[in-house]
Design goal:
Mean pLDDT: 86
Radius of gyration: 21 Å
Number of strands: 0
Helix content: over 70%
Structural class: mainly alpha
Strand content: under 5%
Length: 178
């Protein structure tokens, strides 16, 4: 029997497709749409926008951590299956998963604490704002977005392997005899 993606657990295959797609949507909705538009809304002051942004990005960060944990658990399950039944594109799936989780760690452990200190200073009135740390956050977020798109692409190509005409006919024969 030829090993295929169907030899891997369904939940792990599903999560490797669903989780990055959800994460991409989260980044688009919050980082690319909500955050820039917030400061253009009438009546939003810098302190009010920062206060809202801190809450929104904390919620987003918690959600990203949960998504990353599910992604890693799925990757572990796929890796175990891959050792027995090699999966197409597994190395790419693993690479982009590690990149995504690593970038999340950089955002969470390094950049967000610095941004919190800087936004505290703005809210206290001791800093005018406009720090370059935001550009680092935006850069990491853009690279994370690209890594997640590449992860979904690799997962689709590796986990949703198209059947050859011979396999499709054999599957039809099995289904017809059942």
């Amino acid at each position: 029997m030829t090993p295929s993606s169907t030899d891997t657990p369904r939940w792990a295959r599903a999560m490797m497709l669903i989780i990055p797609a959800m994460w991409i949507g989260l980044i688009i909705g919050i980082s690319f749409i909500e955050a820039p538009l917030k400061f253009t809304a009438p009546g939003i002051t810098i302190p009010l926008g920062l206060g809202i942004g801190r809450r929104v990005f904390l919620a987003m960060n918690i959600t990203e951590v949960v998504l990353a944990i599910i992604l890693v658990l799925s990757l572990i399950k796929l890796w175990r299956s891959h050792r027995i039944h090699p999966l197409e594109k597994f190395q790419q799936i693993r690479f982009y998963s590690f990149i995504a989780v690593g970038l999340l760690l950089i955002k969470t452990v390094i950049i967000r604490p610095i941004l919190a200190i800087e936004s505290d200073a703005v809210l206290a009135g001791t800093s005018p704002g406009g720090s370059s740390t935001h550009f680092y956050y935006i850069g990491v977020e853009a690279i994370l977005f690209i890594a997640l798109v590449l992860l979904v692409t690799a997962a689709v190509r590796g986990l949703l392997v198209p059947q050859t005409p011979h396999q499709a006919i054999a599957a039809q024969d099995i289904n017809a005899s059942s």
